[in-house]
Amino acid sequence: MPSGIAAVGDGPGGDADIQAAFTRSHPSDLAPADAAQLAQLGSEVWLAETTGTGRTRWPAYFPTGQGASSSFYYSGVRIQAVATHTEGGSGKVRVDLLWVGTTPAGDYGDHRPATVHLARTDNTWEPVR
């Protein structure tokens, strides 16, 4: 991370600085209100991906039984930073995240990168793989 940014293991207190640096290095090309809405949705999808909580909200994205074992999920997950971008003229949005969590094996890590893709369907956005 750039100078002045929270170091690995600094905890939630450093997340605002991480977000500010991530925003500077990954500026959004969306209107601020749209970027905020899609960042929130992408974060919710990623939390469902990593923790298992909320997967029923997107049954096409998380097929029944996928990751059914609690030993599959991370713990202590939080999002440190989010950036949103359009994906060319495809009508899709890419949500890039930095996140923190502990693996099922007990390995802790922060500044973990992830990406969630969202596509417009009718009047809503849905995650797509």
Helix and strand topology:
Elements: H1 15-25, H2 32-51, E1 75-86, E2 92-102, E3 108-121, E4 124-128
Antiparallel strand pairs: 1-2, 2-3, 3-4
**Cα-to-Cα separation, first versus last residue:** 28 Å
Poorly predicted residue ranges: none
- The whole-angstrom Rg is 15 Å
Helical fraction equals 10-25%
Q: Major beta sheet, specifics? A: 4 strands, antiparallel
**Mean pLDDT across all residues, rounded?**
87
Write down the overall geometry.
flat
Structural class: alpha+beta
Order of helices and strands: HHEEEE
Number of helices: 2
Let me know the number of strands.
Answer: 4
* Spatial strand sequence of the major β-sheet: 1-2-3-4
Instruction: Tell me the β content.
Output: 25-35%
What does this 3D model show about the protein?
The mean pLDDT is 87. The protein has 129 residues and is an alpha+beta fold.
Characteristic terms for this protein:
2 helices, 129 residues, four-stranded antiparallel beta sheet, alpha+beta
What's the gist of this structure?
The protein is an alpha+beta fold.
